[in-house]
Amino acid sequence: MADLERKAKEAFIDDHFELAVDLYTQAIALNPTNPDLFADRAQANIKLNNLTEAVADASRAIELDPSMAKAYLRKGIACMKLEEYQTAKAALEAGASLATEEPRFANLIKECDECIAEETGETKKQAVEAPLNTLSLKEEPEDISSKASMVTPSKSKYRHEFYQKPEEVVVTIFAKGIPASSVTVDFGEQILSVSIDVPGEDAYHFQTRLFGKITPDKCKFYVLSTKVEIRLTKAESGLHWASLEYNQETAVVKRITVSSEIAQRPTYPSSMSKRVDWDKIEAEVKKEEKEEKLDGDAALNKFFREIYQDADEDTRRAMKKSFVESNGTVLSTNWKEVGTKKVEGSPPDGMEMRKWEF
């Protein structure tokens, strides 16, 4: 294991960061309780921009050794790159209390304050990313004692899924019969980290950058007989998460909150005190039209129009044919009578031609 660690450090110094991560992973498989290995792998993951992995490694190093200042530093740097400024600041402040002589903590904490102020609208000043890009993270190799206990690398042995409500996201990890003492859940502004470490079994780690931001202080988790239920309180209630994990290409869709009351048409200023029932008015108009009392030609025209409207196809054909062929003097509804011959007719003396409307 010591040889793997030495080679990993050499690979990091030579800027072979992928090789360094691979070698540190092999070393961790041999000694999973060594916090330095996790902290150093976090450093290599930051160089590769594997930021959620870096946060997970740094958090694991802190769990194993809460007094390790460099683990807090690396967690803070990774969280800042993820724009998790509140979480970054908390980690950096904890590290600063352990390494008071290290100026990088103070500089990064100041930068976090500026970014937090910008996010909350207290200042228009833009966050400066240069210090993050120019920090020298290389450190001198350190001698680390080794323990030769063989452990199988961790595997994703549990299935997880999620669903959401307007105000929260519920993540379920299906793990049966897990002791509560074996479950560790950490909440960041936009990071969820879950560890299940049952003695004698492969450790399970689930770390992800979430689709949206959460309020860590309001988040909770419960270890039940068949699952671990994690309730994430959304920082912005009503924001719909298209997925659990952050994806730069996924559009953010606002959930439209609909009142439980019956939706109404837009209202405009009016002197009317009551809501207008347009369906009722339309029915009344049709009824009035039907019952309308007309005289003379208007009444006769209305009568024939109603006959045509309610008639079958043969009746309509008979009415049209007889009317056209007789120059408006005959109107028959019997197709058998007028269908086989031309309808002839002429108005009686003194009778005007009428124009019937069908």
From TrEMBL:
Residues 339-358 are annotated as: Disordered. InterPro entries: CS_dom, HSP20-like_chaperone, SGS_dom, Sgt1-like, TPR-like_helical_dom_sf, TPR_rpt. This is Protein SGT1 homolog. TPR repeats lie at residues 35-68. GO terms for molecular function: protein-folding chaperone binding. Belongs to the SGT1 family. CDD domains: p23_CS_SGT1_like. PROSITE patterns: CS, SGS, TPR. It holds the Pfam family SGS. The keyword Repeat applies. Residues 155-245 form the CS domain. The lineage of its organism: Eukaryota, Viridiplantae, Streptophyta, Embryophyta, Tracheophyta. It comes from the Eukaryota. Residues 267-358 form the SGS domain. Keywords: Repeat, TPR repeat. SUPFAM superfamilies: HSP20-like chaperones (SSF49764), TPR-like (SSF48452).
